[in-house]
Amino acid sequence: MRIDIITVLPELLRSPFEASILKRAIEAGHIEVYLHNLRDYSDKPHKQVDDYQFGGGAGMVLMIEPIEKCIENLKSERIYDEVIFLTPDGERLQQKMANQLSMKQNIIMLCGHYKGVDQRVRDQFITKEISIGDYVLSGGELAAAVLSDAIIRLLPGVLNDETSALTDTFQDNLLAPPIYTRPANYKGWKVPEILRSGNLPAIEKWRDEQAYERTAKLRPDLLNEDH
């Protein structure tokens, strides 16, 4: 799989891909990630990529020309399954969406900045708009890092135990059940006896019940969604 991220601040995005699981996934060849500085595609003085919005109003807008040049340059080299725009008014990121995107081969992510991008970019080039929550960030870089992490950890071979991702919170629209590790008794706070019983069918039943109870208490809205 390959992810190309278009940004005006590539330095902000390097760190997440230089540590932990993402770094190991890249080094092992499970994923390719490339950062593209939008300013490299600007013909304006001082590599300008933004301008004032027509009709007046506060905030600068990313111009269509450098974005088109970057996207078309990438498309000339390979076919992309999705061109994603990270924006607060996009479809909210959920586990099901991450699962689907992890099945793709090539993805472009465009990071918004300033007030946003020229609407013609969204109309002509974007195939999917994604938000990581109902709040506004200074730019789409951190959102792109979040989306990339959510996708990459699902790729075969990335996690040491590939079944781990299948039991994460939000898989099957349920929150994960409580988890414990050693010691079994810490200051009188004990691990549930069932988890130390060795009875695997009973443990799985307990976990399923706990997952449902936690979801009903903390996120009842998930139980109303299609599984």
Overall radius of gyration: 21 Å
Strand order in the largest sheet: 2-1-6-5-7
Instruction: Kindly report the CATH topology of the largest domain.
Output: Alpha/beta knot
What is the chain-wise order of helices and strands?
EHHEEEHEHEHEHEEHH
Q: Per DSSP, what share of the residues sits in E-state strands of 2 or more residues?
A: 15-25%
Uncertain runs:
none
What is the architecture of the largest domain at the second tier of CATH? 3-Layer(aba) Sandwich
Count helical runs: 8
General form: elongated
Work out the oligomeric state of the chains in this entry: single chain
Characterize the biggest β-sheet. 5 strands, parallel
* N-C termini distance: 27 Å
Q: Provide the helix percentage.
A: 25-40%
Overall mean pLDDT: 93
Q: What structural category arises from helix and sheet content?
A: alpha/beta
* Number of individual domains: 2
| Number of distinct beta strands | 9
In the CATH hierarchy, what is the class of the largest domain?
Alpha Beta
CATH H-tier superfamily of the largest domain = SPOUT methyltransferase, trefoil knot domain
Mind explaining what this structure looks like?
The chain folds into 2 domains: 2-152, Alpha/beta knot (3-Layer(aba) Sandwich), CATH 3.40.1280.10; 169-223, Trp Operon Repressor, Chain A. It is an alpha/beta fold. It has a 5-stranded parallel beta sheet. Strands 3-4 form a two-stranded antiparallel sheet. Strands 8-9 form a two-stranded antiparallel sheet. 32% of the residues lie in helices and 19% in strands. A hairpin with a 2-residue loop joins β8 and β9. The chain has 8 helices and 9 strands.
